[in-house]
Amino acid sequence: ASGHLDVRVPKAFSNEMERTTKKKPPSTTSIHIMFTGYDEHSYSSDRNEKVSEIFKNLLPYPEQGRIFIGFPTHQTTGCSSHLAARLIPTVERESIDLVDKTLAVYNNEMLCLVGILCRILYEDEMTQISKLYKEIVGSSINSEDEAIKSGREYFERKAAHALKHFTYKPSTPSVAVGRIAESQFYSCSAKPISILSTRGVQPADLVRLPNPEMEAFIKTVPVVPKIIMEQCDVFIKKAKENLKIMKEIKINDVFMELQSRALTIEETVALMKWWISYRTKENPSDNDIHQFLRLTIVKLNDNDIFPLSKARYFLNAS
């Protein structure tokens, strides 16, 4: 992907930059970022033994990409994309100059634009996944159809690849390079980053981190799929602890689930096991208990349902 930029700077800034680099800042410039999607990467990996070292270096994933300024530098990007841009290097021409006052401003602005372009690439990939996910998987929650199950797994792996690709790690030798791009990657849009959930692509703040005790009965609340939890653990930790855009699934999410549908007998058994465990660890309010009883509806068969609030007795299995 490429971004084309108009460069407008004050005359004093232009003069200072010319004094330092012996060149005026360009009137226009461009940045180029390489992103390889899941399908292309899988295909190239399958044929990896037949690909020369020259072309292997074009695909840094899962390692970090490098910055090219007409020639390769030692500076990594922080994510798994190579970057080609007219960034200004240090005197040694091996890393990006973030020390000189004037050059630091110029390079910082360029790196911010890199972060924006990376976000555009990522969100475009999520848009494509969302469209196909709706067509193939749809809104099914308990489908045993092999085509749907296979499609769901494929999209989860595809989404995990994109998310892992753009999850920033400390860049080297300058950590600041990756930090600048990453900051803009997350802050350039008022909308939180998109992520594939068990209910399709959603803004990350609407997706919950899973609780194994709830897995059997939480079907309509968007939850992070197992594949993404396993492959994108660095992002998950960052989203929860640093960005604070993702939360553990809570009792209010359980109420949303119960409000949306009647549960099967098997799901109700799992729900009651969780509820017993929850009450031993937490101290639910009277309102929470009332909500739980009011919202829990058991589907006995195709025609009959039973509200838990009407239960008066239970069978002691012991």
UniProtKB/TrEMBL annotation:
Location of the region described as Disordered in the Swiss-Prot/TrEMBL record: 1-27
InterPro entries: DUF3684
Pfam family, one: DUF3684
The protein, known as: 4843_t:CDS:1
Species annotation: Acaulospora morrowiae
